[in-house]
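Subject: complex prediction, re-run

Hi both,

The earlier run crashed halfway through, so I resubmitted it with identical inputs.
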Amino acid sequence: MVAADLEGLHEPAVRRADLGLRVHWCVLPFRVLLVLTSHRGIQMYESDGSTMVYWHALDSGDATPVQAVFARGIAASGHFICVGTWSGRVLVFDIPAKGPNIVLSEELAGHQTPITDIATEPAQGQDCVADMVTADDSGLLCVWRSEPVFTLLTCIPGFGVPCPSVQLWQGIIAAGYGNGQVHLYEATTGNLHVQINAHARAISALDLAPDVGKLLSAAEDTFVHIWKLSRSPESSYIEAAPLL
Amino acid sequence: MSVRTLPLLFLNLGGEMLYILDQRLRAQNIPGDKARKDEWTEVDRKRVLNDIISTMFNRKFMEELFKPQELYSKKALRTIYERLAHASIMKLNQASMDKLYDLMTMAFKYQVLLCPRPKDVLLVTFNHLDTIKGFIRDSPTILQQVDETFRQLIEIYGGLSAGEFQLIRQTLLIFFQDLHIRVSMFLKDKVQNNNGRFVLPVSGPVPCGTELPGLIRMFNNKGEEVKRIEFKHGGNYVCAPKEGSFELYGERVLKLGTNMYSVNRPVETHMSGSSKNLASWTQESIAPNPLAKEELNFLARLMGGMEIKKPSGPEPGFRLNLFTSDEEEEQAALTRPEELSYEVINIQATQDQQRNEELARIMGEFEITEQPSPSISKGDDLLAMMDEL
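This time it finished cleanly. Structure:
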């Protein structure tokens, strides 16, 4: 378990000035890395937090004086780690089985506003299957395939509110929005199949238990809800039911 | 973090300060003909508010304020407000200034937390400005200054996206993190708990643009609704009211940011029994802070350099006490917990004519209009200036 707060560690690499910290365990085929993002850049540590194996400083070259520069949104996809940035670009890092020779291999374009969250799931083995979703401040969702190369499959437009959190499970995209709604989309088509008026304030985070298909939503209205995701046996359309 | 947060923070905290000062001045009001030389009258009150508001909305100061920049620390910001509060004939002791700043910050923290949408912090700001305009409605010049700032706010913030407002909201909340001072008025109204945390209501209207929670709709491939489920969501919400106006004039609808003080509700803060979360604050204020490195930031210097016409000759003792008696004020100063001390070192730049000229000369030697380059830290910039003295 990792808890991030401002009091934090007094190691040279983790500084109190690094506000807006996000933390994520990235589970890769041969190793687990702990990734931190902030307004300075991206830090990657060995899973016990003992050594920093990689540091990527953010390039603020294109930013205007009024734009905040930061990295936000972390996910592992195969042997890559994807991290979102303030510009909307998604950085893709190639991670070797061990050691610090991590390389920024490409930058994905698709978003024009700051990335909020990235979700991935292992490819199901078939062709053209979406295995990554990226979300941004405008509510836009981009759906990607990572093999053989990262390819943009489809986009799901926003509707005026940010999408702070997104999850991907068995071809179902779950997106939480700033207006308290949770939407479920079919990843292959981008069609909206479920709309939940879940909360009275902005959704802070979604989490998903993949073995049982349960989705958790937490919001600024102080409530936490749990939903059961499923597919209708007849139509195989996505369905959701409230559990808590 | 958002670099557009400082104007909102400054204006809203300033608004709260004016509400509190107005209330305290009215409470200590003595009718003009009956007043002794050292007692407050209605005329004095208006004059104090006029002086402070006109300093606060000074054109040059506003220009600096609105430049994109990081937020100042709590200590640095307090220095600015201390200067602001002393921009008039009024004086405040350390204990009263501490209490004033505590009340200001907790009030705005409450307002930010309870904003239904991140964008509503702008409505809170407009509420403060509307009331400020009421304080100085008899002074057209100052009114013009305030309207000018109002227009600037509309221009800069009117077009920001929901995502940008969310970042501003987060920047503000980080500024207020770990502040849990109990305010008697909030405790009485049950909007704050005994541990200093605010109560987040789970009833009332939903924000504009949000649906009432409790419904799941399911669709087919053509977008037609095929099933719906209703569920109990735990709160007690009602539909959103109409949206408040973001224009120069208009009904704001939102009550946050309006004046909640009245003459008969003296407001106390509670220092004892502070929560153990003060640990992080301890680290911030106890860190060694030599005079040379005090965050005598540009805004504070600018504030200190502004001249307010004061009557010549020895100053009458126009001291305002935020407590109910002088003894109480002394007691508060002695018993303020170490970790909550702001450790502000007072540089009496406003009262030292010679020093003021010196600072003005130094300021003249630097290109004030330029933003300091980002590679020089605030501290180094200041040290360089101090070396010139």
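The CA atoms of residues 115 and 136 of chain A lie 4 Å apart.

- K.
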